[in-house]
Amino acid sequence: MNVRRRISTAALAGSAVLGLLAVSACSATSGAAGKEDGKLAVTASFYPMQFLAEKIGGEHVSVTSLTAPGTEPHDLELSPKQTAQLGESDAVVYLKGVQPAVDEAVKQSGVQHTADAASFTKLEQHGSEVGGHEEHGHEEHGHEGHDHGDESGLDPHIWLDPVKYAEAAKGVGKTLAAADPKHKADYEKNTAALVKQLDKLNQEYKDGLKNRKSDTFITTHAAFGYLAERYGLTEEAISGLDPEATDVSGSRVKELQGLAKEHDVHTVFFETLTSPDMAKTLAKDVHAKTDVLDPIEGITKKSRGDDYLAVMESNLKALQKALGAK
């Protein structure tokens, strides 16, 4: 997030030529193959966007993710082949502010139907303080004219709040329907079904975290700001919005030690795609245990569940345990 990544001009300039090679070289799930089998060729930037595209697109889409499973998505570098494939897509589903290389490639691609999930909900700043969600209104934003992302310090982790993720799902549904009007009714039906599942998940979190002993939880990086806000919790992160940060100041560690004591924190959370070392060190210092709170940036064999909904259920159980929820 704080690390800047850009695609080289040469890679972008060469993409048109490489596109011809990519058409014959792409795998069965690529954009080119999607057109051959009559399906809408959709490129997704990373797992949460892939999940939306697959659930809403159903049998009518062929979805390719630019981020391989098990790869930390924030620092993704695109190969010339991926850049070319993105340009061949019928639609692109991405989240501006997470992967600068993708943001740049989408801008240069000329693809007509692009869904920036960040543009379908309201982004906020997180990291230093987390307040009650009631104070924050919901605004529907159009796709045009927004500059989200790390330049402005806005938090892109909207998928970890089921309500915001549902807002993004509605926008993605409209984009797929615009790209493939003859299957519009199916996209609308699939969007409604997914929104219903996310509403149910939201209710489970509300009910599951109602009777808790503590409001404060400690994580490795500040991915859970929207989730914390939604359910009246306070997230304290060892590092900021950048999951790769390793240079945590001594004063921050000292502050977290004090907060752990003050708020009776017995668990320090780490995640599946980055090193657990910082969490383990802090946990040892404050005599706490460690557990996984997964930001669901990718699904791997280590994930506690095989898709977004299953991992969110596991996250709820982990939070209930850590916060003493009955």
Mean pLDDT: 83
How would a crystallographer describe the biggest sheet?
A: 4 strands, parallel
**Approximately how much beta-strand content do the residues carry?**
5-15%
Low-confidence stretches: 1-33, 128-150
Q: State the separation between the terminal residues, measured CA to CA.
A: 36 Å
Number of helices: 12
The coarse silhouette is: globular
Number of strands: 10
* Share in helix: 40-55%
Write down the Rg: 20 Å
Order of helices and strands: HHHEHEHEHEEEHHEHEHEHEH
Structural class: alpha/beta
- Please list the strands of the largest sheet in the order they lie side by side: 2-1-3-4
List the helices and strands and how they pair.
Layout: H1 9-13, H2 15-25, H3 31-36, E1 40-44, H4 47-57, E2 61-65, H5 80-88, E3 91-94, H6 100-109, E4 113-116, E5 124-125, E6 154-155, H7 162-179, H8 184-208, E7 216-219, H9 225-230, E8 234-237, H10 250-262, E9 267-270, H11 277-285, E10 289-292, H12 308-323
Parallel strand pairs: 1-2, 1-3, 3-4, 7-8, 9-10
Antiparallel strand pairs: 5-6
Helix pairs in contact: 2-5, 4-7, 4-8, 5-6, 7-8, 8-12
The gist of it:
This protein is of the alpha/beta class.
Could you explain how this protein is built, in words?
The protein has 326 residues and is of the alpha/beta class. Helices cover 43% and strands 12% of the residues. It is built from twelve helices and ten strands. Helix 2 packs across helix 5 and helix 4 crosses helix 7. The radius of gyration is 20 Å and the shape is globular. The N terminus is likely disordered.
